[in-house]
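Response to reviewer comment R2.3. The reviewers asked that we include at least one raw input/output pair. We reproduce the pair for tRNA uridine(34) hydroxylase here without editing.
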Amino acid sequence: MKNYTICALYKFVSLPNYVSLKDPIHNKMKELQVFGTLLLAHEGINGTIASKDSNIKLFLKWLQNLESNLNPISYKLSYEDSQPFNRVKVKLKKEIVTMGVSTIDPKKTVGTYVKPQDWNQLISDPDVLLIDTRNDYEIELGTFENAVNPNTKTFREFPEYTKKHLDPKKHKKVAMFCTGGIRCEKSTAYLKEEGFEEVYHLEGGILKYLEEIPSKESMWQGDCYVFDGRVSVNHNLEKSIHDLCHACRLPITPEDKQHEHYEQGVSCPKCFGQYNSEQLAKFREREKQVQLAKTRGEEHIGHDAQKIITERKELKKRQKEKQRMLSK
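Raw output as returned:
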C-alpha cells in the first residue's frame, strides 16, 4: 500500500451558504493534515486533496455530514508514495469549473451517463462524434482513439468551439469525456440547452475508466494529465514520465529537458522567449531558493511563477480588448 491517498472529488449542488463553509473546511483540512485545493461556489464543490488514507476517509465522512446535500459526493481515489501537494487551499469561486455561461445548470439538465464498461461500445459506433473536452496541453499527453481535439486552451473556449464546429442537425450523437467527469457535466448540459438530443458522457471520467478497464481492453492511448504533483498518470494510475515547467506550468517530457531551450525552473521549449529579463531573473532566483531549500531538507513554496503567468494573461486580455475597441 502506498503512503498517500489522492482524492479527486466534486458535486454540483446548490450551496447558497458556500462562503460560510470556507473556514470550517479549511480548518478541518489542517486538523487532519489533508493537503490540496477545494473550490466552493453557489453551484457546488470541486477539487483534489491528498493525505493518509485514514485521514481522507475521515475528511470525506465529515464533509458529507457538513451539508446534507453533499451526501453522497462523487470521488475517485488513487495512490502515491509521496505527498503531491504542499498547501491547504479553499477558494471561493463563481463556478467550480469555469465555462462562463451562467445559465447552464447540470442539476437540471445533463447528458446521459455511460459506465466505463459500456464506453468502448458507445465510442466504437461510427455515428457517434467523440469529443475530448479537456485543454490542448492535457490532450497532448493522451486521449481516446478517434477523439476530436477542440484545440481549446481553457474550458471557457468550449461554447465558442460548439457554435463554430457542432450542429445539432448534423451531429445526432455526441459523446464527451474529461479527467474526472466534472467538465462533462457542464459541456453535456450546454449541448442539451443548444438543441443536441443524444448527448453522452463518460461517468467518472478518464480516471474511473483507467481504474476499471483492463489495459488489454482499453481504447485509451497515452497518459492522463492530473492536477496534482504527479502531473500525469499511466493506465495503472501510477505517476508517469511528465514533470511541470515551473515557468509556464505546462507538462514537459524527459526529451524536453534535453532541449537547448530548457533551463530548470526558468524555461522550456514551450515557453522559451515569452518572458522578459525581469521575469526570468525572478524565475532564476526562485529556482535558487528551491535548490537551497532542498539542501536543508525543506520544501520551498513560492508564488512568483504563477503571479507572473497571471499578470501575463491579464496583459494579453487588455491588449486584445484595446485592439477590439480600435477596430470598431
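The chain has a mean pLDDT of 92. The chain has ten helices and 15 strands. Further pairs are available on request from the corresponding author.
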